[in-house]
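1st attempt posting a full record on here, be nice pls
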Amino acid sequence: MKLIVHYNRHNFIVLTLLFILSGIASYTLTKKVLLYELDESLGYAMEQTNAYVQTHHALPAPSPYDNTQVSIVPSNEPVAAPRITNVENGISVKGRKHIGHTLTFFVALDQQHYKIIISKPVEGIRHITYTVMLLTMAMILVLLLMLAIVNRFVVSRLWRPFYSTLNSLKNFRLNNTSAVEFKKSNIEEFSIMNEQLQLVTANASKEYRLLKEFTENASHEFQTPLAIIRSKLDVLIQQDNLTEEQTELVAEAYSAVTRLSGLSRSLLLLTKIENNQFSDQQELSLHHTVQRKVSQFEELWEDSDISYSLVVSPVFIKMNGDLLEILLNNIFSNASRHNRPGGMIRIVQESNVLHVSNTGNGGALDSEKLFSRFYKDAVNNDNNGLGLSIVKQICIASGISPYYEYKEGLHTFSFHW
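the predicted structure (as tokens):
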């Protein structure tokens, strides 16, 4: 989820709660204010009634022209303090029942007590309250829409430098010779972030280049002493005075030196591919190359009792010729080495994909670690673990997508371009 979407979601929730609370608050406050005004008017009516009684020594007549209802009844009760009570659906106005407030108080006239009840409905209050509440909610709704528009266009524009930096980082590769370029920003925080990222990526690329140079130089330097050791072992193993135990020990040492030499050559090859030393590309006849490579492995497969099938069609691919040879060598070697006597290899080459399938003793391999360096499955662990890593680097350098699938007892490596 993008940051702007996350921000808008929280912003919308908070503003919606504010929208609801504001509507409730405006309704409640408006109603309280208007009821207070209604009570004030009832108190004013009581003062006018008392003044009329004292001035005219008579009770006033109820006014028939407003919604105020007045009733005057003789009472034997003592004069008590005025009280205001709520009336729920008890005041009739134009044939409709309304809620309202009632003021009850007593007056004394000619030694007679009278209870006077003045009732006023809240019909007008309800209309005003709803109107104020709707206006408040409408204004907040407009505010929400304005904020959504601002977040959609203005905030997105403000975050544009950040997303530009992310895109630059996505395209960053340690083996790139050119430094990553970040767009300049007038926002101070983004400008500082880009400066720091520029420094970090430049240092990382430099360290990576130094490591690759060290690997290449070390692999080169290993080859000469390994060749000397192997030649000395060749001479030693041919001695007639060696015992059987000594011969076995020398043979094991020779095997270890041979594996170490292969590992050194594989590391050197990986370094050269990552250093773009095979950057020359040309149009290659893939079907002819595959057919030629199959003919080279044909004798080996026959000796190992492995059958094969080949389906090709005329296709040309643009890549380095040496890399194509190495890729096919590694894939066919893996299909041979990890096969079983009586097994099979199936090679299908179509317009833009090459499938190489083989039977094996084990089950599915770990597709996430398969192309990693020094990955070895539990069944076949006598290889140096760099063959498929070299294949992956060749695919990266040539724009090819490798896939692995295990289905119906067949390990299938597919290469799409």
